[in-house]
Design brief:
Elements (H helix, E strand, L loop, with lengths): L9 H4 L20 H12 L10 E4 L4 E2 L8 E2 L3 E5 L14 E2 H4 L5 E5 L5 H4 L13 H8 L4 E6 L4 E8 L2 E4 L6 E4 L4 E10 L2 E9 L9 H46 L5
Parallel strand pairs: 2-5, 6-7
Antiparallel strand pairs: 1-4, 2-3, 4-6, 7-8, 8-9, 10-11, 11-12
Length: 266
């Protein structure tokens, strides 16, 4: 390589982050930082009102075993949730994987975050090779029969929403903020805002009043703001009360002075 004088900095000459991604060409879709932050935001805002926290399991980048006839076959959703199962395996242990034939309940919703190289499989466009497992779309639709399937491309903000209708995935229209999942009494949509210091579009859950569900940090901030406003209202009330008392005292002093001038003995 031609050497300049003075030499160019390594930022100009050596490969960058875009040249050296985390993905392995033989195993596409390995997590980048977005694959850590987005599933966490989904997890902490997924609060179906009719299910307790102990009766929901949420998995992220966890092996999902789906076929008892091929017990080694699995998919690894970026995010999925199961309703009506214990949060813990046999109510005591953290799960190492989710094995559907042992749990007895399939996921209620699955979400894939498109990475370079995963779009064809995520959207069911890849062909099944001989003696190879089916693609994610086929597993979610035909084997697990997951009622809701969402695919999000953070590079284009394309948000694909599918629902199981008569055994097949059909596109779901985005109505208002997003798509309403009536069984969970929650909606999923694209929210533009700041999370973990980064402002961009994020997948996020919302309630029946079209309010984005708050993260614990946001809940604490909201609580602090309410306390601050309450304290300010109390300060203003006390100040007005003092002003009324001062005015009454001043009026009484004037009355006393007027009566004294007229020789009235109090």
């Amino acid at each position: 390589m031609y050497q300049t004088d003075p030499p160019l900095p390594p930022q100009k000459t050596l490969p960058t982050m875009y040249d050296l991604p985390s993905e392995n060409p033989e195993e596409s879709g390995l997590p980048d930082e977005f694959h850590l932050l987005q599933p966490e935001l989904l997890r902490i805002t997924f609060r179906p009102p009719t299910y307790t926290e102990d009766n929901i399991f949420i998995g992220s980048d966890l092996n999902l075993y789906y076929d008892s006839r091929h017990s080694q076959w699995y998919k690894r959703p970026d995010w999925f949730a199961v309703l009506g199962v214990s949060r813990f395996y046999q109510e005591t242990e953290l799960r190492l994987s989710y094995v559907t034939w042992q749990e007895g309940v399939s996921p209620f919703v699955a979400i894939e975050l498109i990475s370079p190289g995963t779009e064809a499989e995520d959207l069911g466009r890849s062909l099944r090779e001989v003696n190879q497992p089916p693609n994610k779309w086929s597993v979610y639709e035909r084997i697990l029969r997951i009622p809701y399937y969402f695919v999000y491309n953070r590079y284009t903000n394309e948000f694909n929403c599918f629902g199981l209708v008569m055994g097949c995935y059909q596109p779901l229209p985005i109505d208002g903020l997003g798509v309403w999942l009536k069984e969970a009494e929650l909606g999923l949509g694209l929210w533009h805002g700041e999370y973990q210091g980064l402002t961009r579009s994020w997948l996020r859950w919302y309630d029946q009043n079209n309010n984005w569900l708050l993260t614990p940090v946001e809940q604490e901030k909201q609580r602090a703001e309410k306390e601050k406003h309450s304290a300010e209202r109390e300060r203003q009330r006390a100040e007005k009360e003092k002003q009324r008392a001062d005015l009454a005292e001043a009026e009484l002093a004037k009355l006393k002075q007027l009566l004294a001038e007229k020789g009235v003995d109090l």
